[in-house]
Amino acid sequence: MILFAARTGMVEAIHLDNGYLTDIRTAAAGAVAAKWLSRPESRVAGILGTGTQARLQLEALALVRDIHEAVIWGRDPKNARQCADDCQQKLGIDVRTGTIDDVMAAADIVVTTTPSQIPLIHGAQLRRGQHVTAMGTDAVYKTEIAPDVIPAASRFICDSLAQCRRQGELRPAIAARTVATDGQLAVVGTRISRVSCTRRQSRPSRSACNCAAVSRTTPSVMPGQQNLPSSSRLANKHTPVPSK
Predict the structure, then answer these.
(1) 117: burial class by Cβ within 10 Å (0-12, 13-18, 19+)?
(2) 3 φ, ψ to 5°?
(3) What does the pLDDT look like over 161-213, one tens digit per residue?
(4) What are residue 17's phi and psi, to 5 degrees?
(5) How many Cβ atoms from other residues are within 10 Å of residue 92's Cβ?
(6) 188 near 213, Cβ under 8 Å?
(7) Does residue 98 contact residue 74 with C-beta atoms inside 8 Å?
(8) What is the rounded (10 degree) CA torsion for 155, 156, 161, 164?
(9) pLDDT in tens, 148-164
(10) Is the pLDDT of residue 64 over 60?
(11) 123: DSSP letter
(12) Phi, psi (5° rounding) for residue 157?
């Protein structure tokens, strides 16, 4: 990150965080989506992926939901087990590993954090009351949810409609014609605004949120959201990786 002087435009400082702030901000964005789109009584988390973002997403999720247990899937069973052990020790909850089917069968909230180029979640795996946040698809060659997931969900909300059509989870769905090219879908900021204003009494049966682009923008925070996770709340639990 670069700090510029407001008056002169000169560079005042350069912060070499090796992507640390982006990692924290992405995790906070996932928590914002879960805060406003998942059921408040959600207790079981499912994580697809075993890297840094997988760990941070679970930690951020625990700030906005009373998570009692989690199920983690990874392509490498050894990495999945290590990730589960790390998360269990850090968060003090029961964390186990399983297949994708295990994750989908158990979790109230599922977060995908992989660079997968093939769909990991299919429409038939969704359960009533379940929420899925897809974070990993940030390029045209990546995809984590199958084209039949969006029509199977009661709601599909994205961070940037234009970007999700171009390189998010909408792209393969539009190509497969399960979603109309010009379909008008909700975006996270608008959805949060409506929820904040109406204090809705009911939530959708199934929801899916594609937040790949939020990692490069600042999520909108509405007045009265004091309990939302922030970069500072997550950051005080981590030590930035020193620059080489």
Answers:
(1) exposed
(2) -105, 125
(3) 777 777 778 788 888 888 887 766 666 555 554 444 333 444 556 666 655 43
(4) -100, 0
(5) 9
(6) no
(7) no
(8) -170
(9) 998 888 888 887 777 77
(10) yes
(11) G
(12) -125, 135
